[in-house]
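We modelled the chain as a single entity of 426 amino acids. Its sequence is:
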Amino acid sequence: MEIDGSMVFQAQSPTRSGSSFRRRSLSQLGNDIDSESVSEAGDIGDRALPSKRYSGSGRIHFFNDNVPDDNFVVPVQEEAVVHNGNKEQETKPEIPWLLQYISCLVHLAVWGILGVLTRYLLQKLFGPGVVGATSDQSYMYLDLPSNMVGSFLMGWFGVVFKSSISKVSDQLAIGLTTGYLGSVTTFSGWNQKMLDLSVEGQWVFAVLGYFIGLFLVAYSIIFGIQTAKGFKWMLQRLAARSKGGNSSSKSNSIVDNYKFHAVALIMFVLVLALLWCLSGVFEKKEFSSGNSAAQLWLACMVGPFGVWTRWFLARLNGRGLGKNGSLKWVPFGTLIANVSAACIMAVLAVLKKVVKTQDFDTVASGLQLGLMGCLSTVSTFIAEFHAMSQSDQPWRAYAYAMTTICISFSMGTLIYSVPVWIKGYD
């Protein structure tokens, strides 16, 4: 519905017997609503499941369909979604919540393993051995290409096309964004490389690594959003031409029923079992060599546990602190995941210097690559950063980024750098 050129939304009264609607323009949305939306831009964990979206608490849910070009998301109340004055009811059938939850866990595991493999391949491709664009001794750290690629794809599948993917399967949308893109990117790896540079006295490179890294991933998601919008526009034009200008065609049906979920779950369980079995076989074969392949296959085995933990923590995004829900604009779930992963990464790094055995180095490096790499994320972090920068209080984006970076680097310095300086570890 449009009034004087401004977009409005209609929300059904909390009492379902009433038929009246409340109208408010986008410019009239309260700070609490805006705070909640930006902190939920990346991930909200199991609250994204259809049967958990409407918990009866009256909280507002945010839909990504028909988002205007200024990237503001229109909040709507419980059941009514209005496009162009026509009320559209949620038509998805009831699926057992346990089936949805298990399906999400399996999707996250499979896509998480694929994310680990992609990140490893990008490290090797752009690292010293092939292209030579990144290295351990430069602010162009090894995980920068994967963080940029993951952020770019987040603009496609986590912003522009996420609602379209959800119409096929909510679990697929969660698997692609939280599972795959969250695991392709890693904040803990980024933080650890900057700690390594600072330990060696290369403070300028460490500072440049943070600022250039943040700049590049921030523009990667913007580039992803803009190219995805262009591609979506092209698809719409081609579809309109193929239909001969007939706009009365039926909309795509939502594939979301019990049979579809059951079949998809069985397929992904088989794929997960295959990936774990292959990883175990290759790990047993390569472990004694202590090479990067041994670290990779161990990372594939433990990576899903990092993804599951991050998805569970994501339910804290948009909740705020205390009973009053203060600081709702801070995505505490993502913040906790990134900081905790960075700290554990630092613990493993210093332990490798203390123990100095090949087997321990393989295990610790595998945990860093898989478990910590999947527990932390840059794609979700930068999606939240982008949403905050587009809100009416853009300073929050930089406050959130600096808080995450400063806490992680400070804790990492205490855990990793100080012992290395005191003990003189190589």
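As a brief sanity check on the tokenised model: The chain has a mean pLDDT of 83. The first helix runs from residue 31 to 39.
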